[in-house]
Write a structure and sequence with these properties.
This protein has 340 residues and is of the alpha+beta class. The protein contains eleven helices and ten strands. The chain has two domains: 154 residues, 60s Ribosomal Protein L30, Chain: A (2-Layer Sandwich); 176 residues, Alpha-Beta Complex (Phosphoribosyl-aminoimidazole Synthetase, Chain A, domain 2), CATH 3.90.650.10. Its EC number is 6.3.3.1.
């Protein structure tokens, strides 16, 4: 007897298989994967707990995974959510994913492998999700992924603009590359304006193919930054995502203060130089779109600068003093060394 749903193009058994796969991969944690809703018990020890949530996707970066490299895109999805939560001073505690595709097959397991790894890096539990098979909306090979995460913080410890003071030092933490922003422009530059492909080797990118650089997963900052938050060493955090420096850094500043940043003060990944060269993009425009080598910027008291840098650079050099907070004269952010 045929299943009328399968005749319409939907295989219900594939969803059960995915649920079983996730249960097996997260067997070391107490999980109610497969229930109607994800459940998480608020930890003990909080006096006035505040829950901070974020949802996001990875944008058109996922179009570059059509060559079959699907195991890192889930890390990107987790990162985009948990880094936002961290920027508010909260510890990410759980995550849920949503994957939609024209056909549920082994690509979903590959994507979820990245989600599980991202949750491991973030110290967050994967407590649920949804996989939707949607023929006619998507082709069999296309898909989309979105995530939702929740973090927790003491109410008095939530980071807000009022925490940031004049003369605070700005410390930038390196990104792993482009993260998950600007990929519509990236694809235009490399694949439409130039006849490159994912396997192209460029002299500007000595450590791999173009595809290796473009699919480098978004860095998750939880393990680096959370101890500093616990020790109350941070006044403010800007997660450098879509909109680059000009949109995201002012989000952590009071209206009367400005960020003055020396753009020559940190090491930049080669991919940004390649994008600027092949896209013929002005320097200022690069800082409007991309993270330019810094995925997170912290505002800290000058007295704590040495300690914070020492902690962040314990295992490798990844953080620099990039500027300071000043009284606002004109703009909320001023970048030195950038040509308009």
């Amino acid at each position: 007897m045929t299943n009328p749903y399968e005749d319409a193009g939907v295989n219900v058994e594939s969803g059960y298989k995915i649920s079983k796969f996730v249960k097996q991969k997260t067997a070391d944690k107490k999980s109610n994967i497969g229930s109607f809703g994800g459940m998480y018990e608020i930890p003990d020890g909080y006096k006035k707990p505040v829950l901070i949530s974020s949802n996001d996707g990875v944008g058109t970066k996922l179009l570059l995974t059509e060559n079959g490299k699907l195991d890192t895109i889930g890390i990107d999805c987790v990162a985009m959510c948990v880094n936002d939560i961290l920027a508010q001073g909260a510890k990410p505690v759980y995550f849920l994913d949503y994957i939609s595709t024209g056909k549920v097959d082994d690509k979903v397991e590959k994507i979820l492998t990245g989600v599980i790894e991202g949750c491991r890096q973030a110290g967050a539990d994967l407590i649920g999700g949804e996989t939707a098979e949607m023929p006619d909306v998507y082709s069999e090979t296309s898909y989309d992924i979105a995530g939702f995460s929740v973090g927790i913080c003491e109410k008095d410890n939530v980071l807000n603009k009022a925490n940031v003071k004049k003369d605070d030092v700005l410390i930038g933490i390196s990104s792993s590359g482009l993260h998950s922003n600007g990929y519509s422009l990236i694809r235009k530059i490399f694949f439409k304006d130039h006849d490159f492909n994912m396997d192209t080797k460029l002299s500007e990118l000595p450590n791999g193919s173009l595809g290796d650089y473009l699919l480098e997963p978004t860095k998750i900052y939880v393990k680096d930054v959370l101890p500093l938050l616990d020790d109350k060493k941070i006044h403010g955090i800007a997660h450098i995502t879509g909109g680059g420096f000009y949109e995201n850094i002012p989000r952590m500043l009071p209206n009367d203060l400005s960020a003055v940043i020396d753009t020559d003060s940190w090491v930049k990944n080669e991919i940004f130089m390649a994008v600027q060269k092949y896209g013929s993009i002005k320097s200022e425009d690069m800082y409007h779109v991309f993270n330019m080598g810094l995925g997170m910027v912290l505002a800290v008291d000058p007295k704590e600068e040495s300690h914070v840098l020492s902690e962040l650079n314990k295992s490798k050099l990844q953080a620099w003093n990039i500027g300071k907070v000043t009284n606002r004269v004109k703009n909320s952010i001023e970048l030195t060394g950038v040509d308009a």
